[in-house]
Amino acid sequence: MLSKITIAGMHNYSKGAIWDKLELPEGIDKELFVNEVLRQASEFSLLYPDLNFLTCQIGEFGKKWYHNFERWLKAYQFEYEALYNLDVKSTITEVGNNKENTATSGATNSGRNASGSATSNGRNSEDNNHYKAAYDSSNPVITEKDSTGATTSLNSSEQNSETSSSTNSESMTSASEHSITTEEYRRGNQGITMSQEMLLAEYNAWSFNLYQHMAEIWVSEFCICIYN
């Protein structure tokens, strides 16, 4: 029987140093992964029996599968309701502007007209007459006549006019903005798929083991899987 170099033998020989260059996403237990590889392939021959080359290739394996392992881990840790097939969240935002203009104006006019007139006319006259009587008559007759007279005339008039006016105006503008956000969240069973079918799918999903699947990929790339 030919001797063979196994992954368990190389692991023990290097004291675990063959895994030093292996980098895994945060959240994946590296020690658990290594132990799962050793459990599955401890008796299988290595495809790369050179220690340095094997160590380098294990590091490259981690780089190549890093993104895949990261996505599998997120899916593995995702929280959901097993019997719900509807999970919809929608957000509606309404934005509006209100603008109001108010203008007032007014005018006031007031006036007063006053007019008046006064006219006075007067005339004064005075007569001085001289009388004599005839020798044979007892009735005097006017022999001389003096007449003086004065006339005065007064005219006066007065007129007043007063007018006042005032104008006022006022303008006011107000503006406001409002925002209304409405969130709608619908979840549950739409009724398209029976709850029993979803429960069976949940069971099959959790039959998958992340570390076992990762170890199987590693073994398929680094080991010669021959069973004695």
What does this structure look like?
This protein has 228 residues and is of the alpha+beta class. The protein folds into two domains: 111 residues, no CATH class; 78 residues, no CATH class. Helix content is 31%, strand content 44%. The protein has five helices and four strands; from the N terminus they run ααβαββααβ. The strands form two sheets. Strands 1-4 form a two-stranded antiparallel ribbon. Helix 2 packs across helix 5. The chain is rod-shaped.
Radius of gyration: 64 Å
How many DSSP E strands? 4
Shape: rod-shaped
Q: What can be said about the biggest beta sheet?
A: 2 strands, antiparallel
Amount of beta strand: 35-45%
Q: Uncertain segments of ≥5 residues (pLDDT<50)? A: 149-154
Mean pLDDT: 78
Helix content: 25-40%
Oligomer: single chain
Number of structural domains: 2
Short account of what is shown:
This protein has 228 residues and is of the alpha+beta class. It has helices at 7-14, 30-41, 51-77, 195-205, 210-222, and strands at residues 45-46, 86-133, 140-188, 223-224. It has two domains: 7-85 and 193-224, no CATH class; 102-179, no CATH class.
